Amino acid sequence: MFMIPLLKKLGQFFLDTIQAIVMALSIFIIVYLFLFQPHQVKGSSMYVSFEDGEFLLTDKISYRFHSPARGDVIVFKAPKTEPCSEIECEYIKRIIGMPGDRVMVFKGKVYVNGQPLWETYLSSEMVTSAGLAMPEGQEITVPENYYLPMGDNRTHSRDGREFGPIPRQSIVGRAFFRYWPIDRIGIVNHPNF
User: Fold this and answer.
1) Which of these is catalytic: 49, 60, 93, 157?
2) Is the distance from CB of 46 to CB of 93 less than 8 angstroms?
3) Total structural domains in the chain?
4) Is residue 120 included in any domain, yes or no?
5) Is residue 141 domain-shared with residue 161, that is, in the same domain?
6) Which is the catalytic residue, given 9, 42, 44, 45?
7) Are residue 29 and residue 118 in the same domain, yes or no?
8) What distance in Å separates the CA atoms of residue 174 and residue 176, rounded to the nearest whole number?
9) Fewer C-beta neighbours within 10 Å, C or N terminus of the chain?
């Protein structure tokens, strides 16, 4: 007789635990698929802004309500022409060129619409070299619904200078929060242009 109430309580405990786990997993899946997603920085293409191995949270929803902006750090699906060891490779870069912009690399600097781009997030010694998709001194126009990404560590970055502008639909989201390592935790700064 004493065992039956104990078994009922134990059964209720397990049922409550399973419900809590299912609810937590459901919330996690919704957040992961539609709102925020963690990403790890791989390589040095965004150094000094981000170091290899750091973890960022990517906002996957804000671009449904407004367009990406110049200076946003984005995560995007790498073009199929890129050498990736994973099935679907994602890059973390900064938006330099917006739809309709005329962008050029000339004498180590980036020019947007004929004006040098003031990039305060780059080290003062940084020299931007041209690439396959952006030959030295030749202006390219970013097509409608496309963006031109570049890494902050220009000498160690495969980016839009090599593969050209990327379509908006390849953008996963905007990196907005660094959560690892703890000593560098914080909001990802957005430069003013």
Assistant:
1) 93
2) yes
3) 2
4) yes
5) yes
6) 45
7) no
8) 6
9) N
24 shares its domain with 78: no
- Identify whether residues 28 and 49 lie together within a single domain: no
Q: pLDDT, tens digit, for every residue of 110-149?
A: 999 999 999 999 988 889 999 999 999 999 999 999 999 9
- Looking at the domain assignment, is residue 52 inside a domain? yes
Helix (H) or strand (E) holding 93: strand 90-97
Are residues 7 and 27 located together in one domain of the fold? yes
60 is an active site residue: no
What's this model's pTM, rounded to 2 decimal places?
0.84
Residue 180 lies in a domain: yes
* Pair (32, 94) in one structural domain: no
The answer to whether residue 119 sits within a structural domain is: yes
| DSSP letter, residue 11 | H
Q: Write the secondary structure of 21-64 as one string of H (helix), E (strand) and C (coil).
A: HHHHHHHHHHHHHHHEEEEECCCCCCCCCCCCCCEEEEECCHHH
Per-residue pLDDT of the chain (193 residues; tens, 9 = 90+): 566 777 778 778 888 888 889 888 888 887 777 788 999 999 999 999 999 999 999 999 999 999 999 999 999 999 988 877 666 799 999 999 999 999 999 999 999 999 999 999 998 888 999 999 999 999 999 999 999 999 999 999 999 999 999 999 999 999 999 999 999 999 998 887 7
Look up the domain containing 14 and give its range. 1-37
Q: Is 44 a catalytic residue?
A: no
